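Single-chain item
Fold in C-alpha cell form
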Amino acid sequence: MRLTPKDIREKSFNVVPVGYSRKAVRTFLEEVADFVKEVIRENNQLRDELSRKDREIEELMAEAKAFREALRKLDEFSETIKAQAEAEARKIVEEAEKEAKALEEDIERLWKMREKIRLDLRSLLLSYLEHLEERVGDRGSSQGGASQSPPSTGSEED
C-alpha cells in the first residue's frame, strides 16, 4: 500500500487510556507527512530528470549512429576517389610510356634518316668529285699534257 502525505495527516488512532500524547503523535505525523511530501517531490524531479536524460541519450545515440553512417559513407567515398585516382594515374603512366616509346622510335628513325642523308650526301659529293676529276683530266689531256689532279689528303672526311 502506498502512503501519501494526506493519508498520514488524516490517519486517526483509537483513543486508549494509556498511550501516547495525541499532540505529540499529531506533530510527529505532520513531520512525517512533510518529509514524505518532500521525498515524493524529489522522486518526481528525479524521474523527470531521468526522463530528460533518457531523451538526451536517445538523441546522442541517434547522432552517433548518423555520425558513424557519415564516416562509413565518407570512407567509401574516399576509397572510390582513391581507386579513381589510381586508375587515372595508371592511365597517365601508360600514356606517358606510349609517348616515350613513340619518341624513342622517332629518335631512332631520325638517327637512321640522318645516317642515310649523310651517306647519300657523301655519295653525291664523291660523285661530284669524280665528275670534277674527270673534267679536270679531260681538260689536261685536251691541252696536251699531264693531267693535273688535286693533291690527295690521304683520307676522306665525313
Remarks:
- DSSP finds two helices and no strands in the chain.
- The chain has a mean pLDDT of 87.
- The radius of gyration is 59 Å.
